[in-house]
């Protein structure tokens, strides 16, 4: 483990080294000045060993300093460096013997910088020229043979071989030319007197001096020298220094005194009056400085900018009254002032940035330039805001903009990154640049439902198209990545596909029934999916509960409903108050409240004799039977459910107070008029059997009473098993999860059994119905006494 970390450390270090040193070898080329645009300078692809497609994929390009012209560019198709603008060596480098243009070749991802130096070769495109067309010399006739007269040099902007190589003097009788080199290195000619002058013979001599350069073809310039022969002798002025040097801060105001040159002349009077004038100098310098012809003072006459030119050279000529002259060189060096703020240039930017880029990803490239020099040019670059970006110094004055943290478009969509660059001059200058960076969406959020699960309660017998509920999911992503579409997941309800039960609106999430439900509880799964690629989804459960409607009238199972009943219960004469006589059994097809049944006696022969238990339907004597009671008792019982509105049914019951079956024939009177003899015999059989069972029942009751102390509940005590045909078709717990809502309502079908009637149902009594019967919800909510 430790070893591994060490390895990683080394790798990281190697990476750092690589990152910091990816300035590659220099490229150098040479090209003649004044080449046509598009001329090929060299093949960069070959020299760097890069394939052409890589060259263009990495956006190879030439970068120059701010404000500098781009003289060449990369032809990405052929990998060549070509001339893109006219290059004039003299404009670039003046008289410097060697002229090199420097720029950078930039390749991105990873950033790679190559220094390119382009040597500009001189061509002989400038002819030598003299400062004036005519040089006037005044020479005394007494001048001795060998006297020397300096002639100002011609100037050729070209260098080397193309610069002035020689002078020739037109053949004449008096002068020859002698070539001299000044201490500053320039060549000039001297006229040397070979044969004495005679004013009386010739007062004016005209000579032609030609300067020649060494180029091919050779170029030349000429000047006319007018020599006037004078009577007296004369001395030329002499400068106190061969070269004057001065330093001047840039931005010096106009008329600032720079330097004073001075020359003295040994002569007196007019011959000793020295005047100064600027002779050979570039046009640029001519606009920058002025010279006081009388005093030799040089002043600032233009806008001095170090960044334009840091050095000016000029020649000052001193002349006496007779026109004898000499010259001296003045060199003015300009010193830098921190007058340029750094300039921040955004060289490239990934826009927009996908939100899933890992921290440390390079997203932009920034170049900072300061036109000042040295300390004034050193720039620090940083970001002060709290943004997940930072600048990493790269090669030279390049910085990489990298992410420092994860980006989240759902959190921040745009960043305005303010970059500050300040130089180290005094006072320092700084500048700001704001880069707008936007974050692009990636499908990184799945739709999330508002609720963990949804439930819907639907009354039974609903119409198809009924809206059950609507589900809603949110996805914070952008556009299609955040567009939620709802759909039902395939599944089955009671063997049929869910789609035959429900439909969901893909856009709104509204769930509608497709048909009328008879299934009391089912679950479906709804999926919310976004439209991204790949799409993301989440699922939710929708539980549908069908709620009961009170549409079933209680159904009386025992005795048979009113009008058709010939059932008669036998009541022993000795029955005491509170004895169980019979029981009305009824069921209701509904569930819940709608199936809670209550029993009431609405009509009876002797209202004080029998009572019925409101909930169990058990009919008991209210008091002891006395002899005076009518033997034949008739009661009408109404069974009502608890629905809104409630539904009810009624039945009649005949009770015969008798111990003796011999009294049975009197039953005939109790029966309805329409009873037939055949029916009567059935009735007799029924009565006999009922009575027999009643007696058995009494015995069992007694037995039970006895046993109950030890065995508190007997299966059929308080429980009547209903034949399965009376149960609703789907009574099972669909949920299976124990969710007790409507499921248990079906238990309400069950009412405590009549002891006299238990036998009718015992055959179908089984564990299943018992389980349903013992449902907790039922026990808790239905106030039946299940002793
Ligand atoms: C960024 O700047 C732009 C233009 O100045 C502005 O419209 C935008 O609201 C800014 N964004 C932030 C996140 O500040
Ligand atoms: C959605 O996300 C994908 C990547 O998951 C991305 O390519 C696409 O541009 C995003 N769409 C929009 C509209 O932002
Ligand atoms: C949603 O259910 C479908 C089908 O069962 C499944 O393919 C998908 O992965 C589930 N999606 C989620 C987020 O659980």
From TrEMBL:
Range of residues in the leader sequence: 1-25
Cited InterPro entries: Cadherin-like_dom, Cadherin-like_sf, Cadherin_C, Cadherin_CS, Cadherin_N, Protocadherin/Cadherin-CA
Keyword Magnesium applies: no
Membrane topology recorded in Swiss-Prot or TrEMBL: Single-pass membrane protein
Keywords attached to this entry: Calcium, Cell adhesion, Glycoprotein, Membrane, Repeat, Signal, Transmembrane, Transmembrane helix
SUPFAM superfamilies assigned: Cadherin-like
UniProt-annotated location(s): Membrane
GO cellular component assignments: plasma membrane
Ranges of residues in domain Cadherin: 61-130, 131-239, 240-344, 345-449, 450-556, 571-667
Pfam family membership, one: Cadherin_C_2
Gene3D superfamilies listed in its UniProt record: Cadherins
Highest taxon, organism lineage: Eukaryota
A Gene Ontology molecular function term of the record: calcium ion binding
Membrane-spanning parts: 682-704
GO BP terms in the entry: anatomical structure morphogenesis; homophilic cell adhesion via plasma membrane adhesion molecules
Name of protein: Cadherin domain-containing protein
Organism of derivation: Gadus morhua
């Amino acid at each position: 483990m430790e070893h591994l970390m060490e390895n990683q450390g080394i790798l990281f270090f190697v990476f750092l080294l690589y990152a910091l040193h990816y300035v590659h070898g220099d490229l150098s080329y040479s090209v003649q000045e004044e080449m046509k645009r598009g001329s090929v300078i060299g093949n960069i692809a070959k020299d760097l060993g890069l394939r052409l497609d890589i060259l263009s994929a990495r956006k190879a390009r030439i970068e120059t300093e701010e404000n500098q012209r781009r003289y060449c560019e990369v032809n990405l198709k052929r990998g060549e460096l070509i001339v893109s603008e006219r290059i004039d060596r003299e404009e670039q480098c003046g008289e410097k013997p060697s002229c090199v243009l420097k720029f950078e070749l930039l390749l991105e991802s990873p950033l790679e910088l190559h220094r390119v130096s382009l040597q500009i070769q001189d061509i002989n495109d400038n002819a030598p020229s003299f400062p004036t067309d005519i040089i006037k010399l005044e020479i005394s006739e007494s001048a001795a043979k060998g006297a020397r007269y300096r002639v100002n040099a011609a100037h050729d902007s070209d260098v080397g071989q193309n610069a002035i190589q020689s002078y020739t003097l037109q053949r004449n009788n008096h002068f020859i030319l002698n070539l001299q080199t000044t201490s500053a290195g320039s060549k000039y000619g001297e006229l040397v007197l070979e044969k004495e002058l005679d004013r009386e013979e010739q007062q004016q001599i005209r000579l032609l001096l030609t300067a020649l350069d060494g180029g091919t073809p050779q170029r030349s310039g000429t000047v006319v020298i007018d020599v006037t022969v004078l009577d007296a002798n004369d001395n030329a002025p002499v400068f106190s220094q061969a070269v004057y040097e001065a330093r001047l801060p840039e931005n010096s105001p106009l008329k600032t005194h720079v330097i004073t040159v001075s020359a003295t002349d040994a002569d007196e009077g007019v011959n000793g009056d020295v005047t100064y004038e600027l002779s050979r100098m570039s046009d640029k310098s001519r606009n920058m400085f002025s010279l006081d012809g009388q005093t030799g003072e040089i002043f600032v006459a233009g806008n001095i900018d170090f960044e334009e030119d840091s050095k000016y050279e000029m020649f000052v000529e001193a002349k006496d009254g007779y026109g004898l002259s000499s010259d001296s060189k003045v060199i003015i060096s300009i010193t830098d002032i921190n007058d340029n703020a750094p300039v921040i240039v955004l060289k490239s930017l990934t826009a927009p940035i996908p939100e899933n880029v890992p921290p440390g990803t390079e997203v932009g490239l920034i170049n900072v330039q300061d036109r000042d020099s040295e300390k004034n040019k050193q720039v620090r670059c940083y970001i002060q805001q709290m943004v997940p970006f930072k600048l990493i110094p790269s090669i030279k004055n390049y910085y990489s903009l990298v992410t420092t943290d994860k980006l989240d478009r759902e959190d921040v969509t745009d960043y305005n990154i303010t970059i500050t660059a300040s130089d180290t001059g005094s006072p320092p200058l700084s500048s700001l640049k704001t880069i707008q960076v936007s974050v692009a969406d990636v499908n990184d959020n799945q739709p999330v439902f508002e609720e963990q699960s949804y439930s819907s309660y639907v009354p039974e017998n609903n119409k198809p198209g009924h809206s059950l509920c609507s589900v809603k999911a949110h996805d914070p992503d952008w556009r299609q990545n955040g567009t939620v579409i709802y759909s039902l997941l395939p599944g089955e309800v009671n063997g049929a596909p869910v789609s035959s039960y429900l439909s969901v609106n893909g856009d709104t999430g509204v769930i509608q029934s497709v048909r009328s439900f008879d299934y009391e509880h089912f679950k479906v799964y709804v999926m919310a999916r976004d439209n991204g690629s790949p799409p993301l989804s989440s699922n939710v459960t929708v539980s549908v509960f069908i709620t009961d409607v009170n549409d079933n009238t209680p159904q009386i199972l025992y005795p048979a409903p009113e009008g058709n009943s010939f059932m008669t219960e036998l009541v022993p004469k000795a029955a005491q108050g509170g004895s169980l006589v019979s029981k009305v059994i009824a069921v209701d097809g509904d569930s819940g409240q709608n199936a809670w049944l209550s029993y009431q006696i609405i009509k009876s022969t002797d209202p004080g004799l029998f009572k019925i238990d409101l909930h169990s339907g058990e009919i008991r004597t209210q008091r002891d039977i006395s002899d005076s009671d009518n033997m034949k008792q008739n009661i009408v019982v109404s069974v009502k459910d608890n629905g809104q509105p409630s539904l009810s049914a009624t039945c009649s019951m005949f009770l015969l107070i008798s111990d003796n079956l011999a009294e049975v024939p009197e039953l005939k009177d109790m029966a309805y008029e329409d009873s037939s003899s055949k029916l009567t015999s059935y009735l007799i059989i029924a009565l006999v059997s009922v009575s027999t069972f009643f007696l058995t029942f009494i015995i069992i009751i007694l037995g039970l009473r006895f046993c109950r102390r030890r065995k508190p509940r007997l299966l059929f005590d308080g429980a009547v098993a209903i034949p399965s045909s009376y149960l609703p078709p789907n009574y099972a717990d669909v949920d299976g999860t124990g969710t007790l809502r409507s499921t248990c309502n079906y238990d309400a079908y069950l009412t405590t059994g009549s002891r006299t009637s238990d036998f009718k149902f015992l055959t179908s009594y089984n564990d299943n119905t018992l389980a349903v019967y013992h449902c907790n919800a039922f026990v808790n909510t239905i106030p039946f006494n299940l002793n």
